[in-house]
Design brief:
This protein is α/β, with parallel strands linked by helices and 661 residues long. It contains 26 helices and 19 strands. Belongs to the RecX family.
């Protein structure tokens, strides 16, 4: 495909949007797609050179408060000319300013689908456009942001967000378009410890005098929404207790000078270091020079720097935010903190702790945010956008596959959609070469293809074990490739073929449970856990007599009684009672089975057991206690084991003199 990416910020800018756009471009090109990045001109003082000719830069002016962003005109004749020559199949907008608006206009002119990624929760950045931070003006600004977000979100072919929190916020704004939650992928290899540039790390440690220090790092945009002042205030308390802990702040932004002044006022220059912004190739070494990553920001839409830090082997310490659910697992790859005091305590705690396990988990967990996974999700979204944009699809070929399936090729413009369909579906829809179908019919055929895939997957699962309706439905939904309707259609097909039958599952489980000696309570608990309807369970219970459960309980009592070689009568009864309860037998059945069973044990057998137990306890403790204390201890122990007091005293009288000489 030919894909045009529109973004107001791009390399060499250091921010999440620029990074995400660059990574997407590289992944698309790696998989054979042609990519054109449409962005603004380089900063006036930059000597950066674009890596290839796939970047179209349009005039713009720096927005000083929004570090890394430049404002451009909403339309460019030169840009439109180059776009037409590029012939994009799809436009993917990354930002909402001049370049983003130009992308929307270009999509309408070229009549191609427009995808849009909502990277930034702009309501968290309204202070940049609020003079004097007036509350009324700030609230008005947030309302304007909501309306703009709604317009963008509902007018694109497909809407992409990096986190579920962002999706939830946009739904509250009133966006009705479908929303794809796709976390931005990262090129994690550069951050891997095996690719560590030790020479550069040593240079960093030497430059900032961090040798033999415990280095806590914050890396990102230096701006109010990042709440960096919380980290600085926390360091005031930390250095009073642990002088070796230092904070390294990496990045640039509008609040940089203000925070430097704050550090100076607090007299923390020897413990807090500002490095300024760094080129992307140097960033991994700054992570590798640290032992812990920390952030107090509550405005992240995904937290790319958190993932970079984890990939570098750093545990992460972050103020809790819903966007970080799934990224940070508290106590597993890092910790959340509630407030400044909690932050101080956790940093000091981690300074004194072995962070090896947290580091290993952080590295492993970061891998799910790879650029390859990111690409695969984005590509599926592009395919959906293309399918929704075109309304007429012509069947150009029907090719037999294996297993009674056919590959049906649908042509629209110069693109093709391939579906794998059964002969039955082809016949039902009357498909033939040359036939034209509309979008609704094509969507229905896609559902049929997915149902076929889901059905095959279900058969694979059923090869190994039986499933209830609820368990199979959840299994297919968890797979993530099928929507609710497709799963429901699959379940109907499985039920029609009697492959899923909760009544039969219940019947089979009762029979199996009886063979295993399970009680009624445990059987019912398991069936409910498997999702079987209480009505089906009650229906079968009518066929299952309580007498059968009692017979099974008596059978188990007899077995345990026959196997007993160590317990006296009282202890044996208690042991059997516990085992019956654990097996799930009801209390009435347990008590009836025990009450009606003859547990009498011959006196001679009891005394033999008691003798063995006496010698075992005596030999074990004879060197620990004086004679009179030992005797008392043995009596107490044997009675506690369940032996009758009179029998214990009889054994003591017989054996004590001999063993205590």
């Amino acid at each position: 495909m030919n894909i045009a990416l529109f973004s107001d910020t791009y390399l060499p800018d250091i921010n999440g949007v620029a990074t995400s756009t660059h990574i997407l471009k590289k992944e698309l090109k790696k998989h054979g797609h042609h990519v054109l990045v449409v962005t603004t001109i380089l900063p006036h003082n930059s000597d950066y050179i674009d890596e290839d000719d796939g970047v179209l830069r349009l005039p713009g002016i720096d927005l000083k408060k929004l570090y890394g962003y430049r404002a451009s005109n909403i339309y460019s004749f030169k840009g439109m000319k180059e776009l037409k020559e590029f012939q994009p199949d799809i436009i993917h907008i990354q930002t909402e300013f001049g370049i983003g608006i130009f992308g929307k206009i270009a999509g309408e002119i070229l009549n191609i689908p427009v995808c849009y990624t909502y990277h930034t929760m702009w309501a968290d950045y309204s202070h940049y456009i609020t003079p004097g931070n007036l509350k009324a003006v700030d609230q008005a600004a947030k309302k304007i942001i909501e309306k703009i977000s709604k317009i963008y979100g509902n007018s694109c072919s497909e809407l992409i967000v990096p986190s579920q929190k962002t999706a939830d916020a946009l739904r509250k704004y009133g966006i009705s378009n479908s929303i794809h939650v796709i976390p931005t992928g990262l090129e994690l290899e550069a951050f891997a410890l095996e690719n560590k540039n030790q020479g550069l790390v040593d240079q960093i440690l030497q430059e900032y005098h961090l040798q033999d220090k415990f280095v806590v790092i914050f890396l990102g945009r230096i701006a109010p929404e990042k709440s960096i002042e919380i980290l600085i205030d926390a360091m005031s308390d930390i250095v009073k207790k642990e002088d070796k802990i230092c904070l390294m702040i990496v990045g640039g932004g509008p609040q940089l000078e203000e925070l430097k002044t704050l550090v100076h006022q607090k007299g923390l220059e020897s413990h807090i270091f500002f490095t300024g912004p760094k080129e992307s190739e140097y960033v991994p070494s700054f992570y590798h020079a640290a032992q812990l990553f920390v952030s107090a920001s509550l405005t992240e839409t995904q937290g790319l720097t958190f993932i970079e830090a984890m990939a570098s082997g750093l545990p992460v310490l972050a103020r809790y935010d819903k966007n970080l659910d799934g990224v940070i697992v508290d106590g597993h790859n890092g910790y959340f903190f509630k407030d400044q005091q909690d932050l101080v305590e956790k940093i000091i705690h981690m300074y004194h702790s072995d962070l090896t396990q947290l580091s290993t988990c952080a590295r492993n967990d970061a891998q799910k945010y790879s650029s390859e996974n990111f690409y695969q999700h984005i590509l599926r979204t592009y395919e959906q956008a293309l399918a929704k944009h075109h309304y007429c699809y012509k069947v150009v070929s029907i090719t037999p596959e294996n297993n009674h399936l056919y590959t049906v090729a649908f042509q629209f413009d110069h693109h093709q959609i391939l579906l794998s369909l059964s002969g039955q579906v082809i016949e039902r829809y009357g498909l033939s070469v040359g036939q034209v179908v509309d979008r609704e019919e094509l969507d229905a055929l896609k559902d049929q293809e997915q149902v076929s895939k889901a059905y095959k997957l279900a058969l694979k699962y059923l090869t190994y074990k039986d499933y209830t309706y609820a368990k199979m439905q959840k299994k297919l939904m968890d797979k993530g490739d099928f929507d609710d309707i497709q799963v429901e259609m699959t379940m109907d097909l499985l039920m029609q073929k009697n492959l899923i039958d909760d009544a039969e599952y219940t019947r089979n489980y009762f029979q199996k449970a009886k063979r295993l000696g399970m009680g009624m309570n445990k059987i019912i608990y398991h069936l409910k856990k498997e999702g079987v309807s209480p009505f089906i369970i009650d229906e079968y219970l009518e066929e299952y007599s309580q007498d059968l459960e009692y017979d099974k309980a008596v059978e188990l009592v007899q077995k345990l009684y026959n196997e007993n070689t160590t317990r006296p009568q009282y202890a044996l009864i208690q042991n059997i009672r516990n085992k019956l309860f654990n097996k799930g037998f009801s209390q009435d059945v347990v008590e009836r089975a025990i009450e009606n069973f003859d547990f009498s044990i011959p006196k001679e057998h009891t005394m033999n057991l008691l003798t063995k137990e006496y010698y075992r306890v005596y030999n074990r403790y004879k060197n620990r206690y004086q004679s009179h204390i030992l005797k008392s201890k043995i009596i107490t122990f044997l009675v506690q084991k369940g032996y009758e007091y009179d029998d214990v005293m009889e054994i003591i009288q017989q054996l004590w003199e001999d063993t205590n000489d």
